[in-house]
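Q: Second attempt. The first request was missing the SMILES, so the protein and flavin-adenine dinucleotide are both included now.
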Amino acid sequence: MDFALSDTERAIRDTARDFIAREVMPLEQELLRRERAHRPGLEPDELRELQRKARAFGFWGLATPEEYGGMDLPAVTQSLIWTEIGRSFVPFRFGGEADNILFRANDEQKQEFLVPTIEGERRSCFAITEPGAGSDAANIKLSARRDGGDWVLTGEKTFITGGNEADFAIVIAVTDREKGARNGGATAFLVDRSMGWRSEFIQTMGEGGPAALVFDEVRVPERNVLGEPGQGFALAMEWIGKGRYTIPSHAVGIAERALRMAIEYATTRQTFGRPIGDNQAIQWMIADSETELEAARWLILRAAWTVDQGMDPRHASSMAKLYGAGMVNRVVDRVLQIHGGMGYTRELPVERWYRQVRLYRIFEGTDEMQRLIIARDLLRGYTRLGGHLA
Ligand SMILES: Cc1cc2nc3c(=O)[nH]c(=O)nc-3n(C[C@H](O)[C@H](O)[C@H](O)COP(=O)(O)OP(=O)(O)OC[C@H]3O[C@@H](n4cnc5c(N)ncnc54)[C@H](O)[C@@H]3O)c2cc1C
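A: Got both inputs this time. The predicted holo structure:
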């Protein structure tokens, strides 16, 4: 058994690490200052400029096939890079990416939606959640009915990341109520904002925020169906699958950085004449955090490896998402505690992480949904105890 990175993995990981340290981390203090003044921490133009620099560095389209100018990296390498990105709280990500399911588009749609999204000229959002359907995604109601050669979409989506900024939405709509979304009754549509949907910003405990999207008889031509009619739910599950290892990979980066801060603080902050790190109470928080971090790291890399092997990654990914999201919440909570009152201020990023990572237990499948999947796989015999070594 070999737990080491290959030379290539290490080289790519280290280059990403250098880039984040050199170009992204220097923006952190300014970001905190702006957010304290209730301004966006990073403007879209600044993000694009960073992405342009990264492109010159060779980082462009981690998951994007080479024919579209991307790096087409294995999932394990992508996971390692997401961990590097997570080390900085600047909301940076490498450019050249597009929603995985846009690669299912036909040639014409690829030119209209996929290529400009990769190039950063157009912005997408992905919309399945509705006010009455989150975890129970198959219960969506937003309907698409045929009218001549068009489809007419009516209904509402909610909590859509990037929904305020996007100029097109990938919308999962019910096209056959009898069949139901899960059994071929839902279809994915590529819907330009100019076709008539509107968005409303939703305030959350995090910085920035998702949007509600309102569709009031929005007319969409047949050529904007993504994939085949009836494939919408399967495409939605494919979209969500990607986040199940990238989200916890990001969480590992956050947890490592936060824990490093806590270790530094524990060795320098003095109470009763000695560093707080001399106390077992503090040491246990550090030890538990490191142990959970290490456990999460291997669960996540195993999930990514499963993707690279062409094996069904769903069980491993659910465990990675469940444990990784819980781990980062526990670690950041302990790191805040170790910092005492300072941890609670907006001078440090700790309270910001505390708010940010709470979402990781909710979006792209809540903790409870991951547990449901893991237990169901075992109870119905879809997977064996012991994983791929069984
Ligand atoms: C900031 C943010 C960004 C998001 N971005 C997007 C996006 O880009 N696109 C998109 O489509 N959606 C997005 N979402 C939606 C997100 O995926 C949903 O919020 C999530 O799936 C949970 O759905 P819900 O909020 O309706 O909660 P509910 O499904 O109503 O669940 C409420 C609670 O009940 C629990 N629960 C539900 N059913 C069961 C059960 N059977 N057994 C046990 N417990 C259960 C849940 O786990 C949860 O704790 C985003 C959400 C947020 C907050």
